[in-house]
Amino acid sequence: MKKSTSVISLIILVALLVVFGITAVTGFGGPGGGAAKDIPLGLDLEGGVSITYQVVGDGIPSNEDMSDTIYKLQQRVQNYSTESLVYQEGVDRINIEIPGVSDAEAILEDLGKPGSLYFIRQTDASGNPNYTYGLDADGQIAYILLKDIETIVADGDAVLSGTDVNSAEAGSVQDSMTKNNTFIVSLSMTDEGTKKFADATEKAFAAGESIAIYYDGQIVSAPNVKAVITDGQAQISGNFTYEEADKLASTIRIGGLKLTLEQLHSKVVGAQLGTEAITTSLKAAAIGFVIIVVFMIFVYRISGLAASLALALYCELVIILLDAFQITLTLPGIAGIILSIGMAVDANVIIFARIREEIGKGKTVESSIDVGYKKALSAILDGNITTLIAAAVLGVLGTGSIKGFAATLALGIVISMFTALFIAKLIMKSFFALGCKSEKLYGVQREQKTIDFLKHKKLFFIISLVAILSGFVFMGIYASKGNNILNYSLDFVGGTSTEVTFTKDMSIGEIDSTIVPVIEGITKDGSVIPQKIDGTNDVIFKSRSLTNEEAGMLKDQLAAQFGATIKSSETISSTISGEMKRDAIIAVLVASAFMLLYIWFRFKDVRFGCSSVLALIHDVLVVLSFYAIVRVSVGSTFIACMLTIVGYSINATIVIFDRIRENKATMGPKDPLDEVVNRSITQTLSRSVFTSLTTFIMVAALYILGVSSIKEFALPLMAGILCGTYSSICLASAFYMVLRKVGKKEEN
To answer: Does domain 495-572 sit in CATH 3.40.710.10?
Structure first.
């Protein structure tokens, strides 16, 4: 690179840093314009709308019907935000909390009245029309019901109800004539609905009629019947955009609830963690970033400076794109960003270690930079692609906070690869062209003495086994005493929602520091969640289930110390339903399977993939033991924490396996494989330690400065980072060597 070109490159880079920095602060327009202040936040960080529905009808609904209704509502409200919550309140109420909005009426109007969907035939038994159509004010076709819905149902012209529909999903098919993709809604009927639908479509097809879909007081679609449908699988086609098809599918799903609901009340609620959580998180991120920059420059000199500038650009791009794509940010989302920052640093560390090795072999600095990037490329791509595959699977199959985690992680990985492989390299080349050519400015990696890690593999296995078994022992002890094996929070087991009226308005910070400790003293539980109701002096406290004695103590102490009165107290269900747990487990299992297949494909040896998965299982079990022993609260962030550890561990393991693969290609026929593996671990040891250290610094800053909820999230994450580092260095390769001996003699 010429000197003039390098100067121009650095000027452009500085200009981009300034422009992106200003954009990240101020943006250019409203939401989506790039400003950090416009990034949509979850209920834990911002608050939103809370809507309470009550089941219509006599008697108490069954647990099965309530569970089915909650799950379908969860699918519906995720159109507003993946971080929306749906949970049971009392025996016949369902509460919906949607973050980032303040207009409850608009949500109610769009959400409609759940449980009022019918499929209506075009004409009655006498041939009289049940509905007709005309044009609305915008010139669009609008269908008009000619009779009231009660009469249509009584006359038997409602051929199906919403409960006859098993599923409704938006999708696309290729038009056989134009070969263009068109958007459709795919319907699947229940067994009973299949019979009803076959009879209805047979009559409609013979008469050349349509069947209207009625929901919440209006006809939302009236597709013509083009064939008799006997298998219960139907498609609704038209000139849909994807958004229109998705909205129709969501409408059919919510209309297919087993229970009919009516709105009881709605309110705007404040953030569960308050502005202090955001402020402290930002401070922690800034402090952690500065420490990482100082560390990188101290260890890697010019290379570290280049990486720091690239990392600054990375952070600005993440902020801008989070707003541009309107990705809802919550604590799990912050976990995804932390992991992607760690991987951004990791890519640079891998490259710089390679550059030092090449300089140590006697090559010039310029040649070492080129060779270092070339040799590091496969490890970086394999590690990031593997994690990206996991993020994609979690984004498709996951629900709620898992989707938020997957979105931020995927975004961060793509940007981190760009900044590490292109921006940092451009900066280093520019510095070199400007005269930074001395080897001392880049460092020299001397030949390292190989450490015999495999020699101690039995010891490592014993240590891991003891760590895992100790967790299960503690679980057994707690279970024998009648307690939960883990310290499950409201998200998993539900609890009590107590609405309290105070004599004055208080900030969430004041509530956290004065009121919450009183409640936690009664419940002996550190996971009380306060939530302000805007425009009032009311605060909702969600805690574990209270006994009658505890409820009485709470009432007396709130009155005595704060002059407060309890307005209402209701039992609430978990916000993480059984279906969501199932979806999370399936998503993680599928992601693990895809990662295994990718590693198998790339390394041409399934034992590498199996060893990686075994290391992941080890990390999950050890961190689970940590949760059990330390009794850290297990809530929605538990899933994000586990996913972060999985992503972090797999990336570290692949770096070592990549070096083993490279060294195996050059080993002689008589070279022992144990020596090759030990040498590979030793060569990547500094990378493993330094990457873990930089990521640990970010999380430790969150733990030191964060509020209690963030501390409960950061503490097991720190344990997971240490565990992931240990398993990658000490266990993954040992697993690989053991698997090579299974069923056959050891290979070279």
So the answer is: no
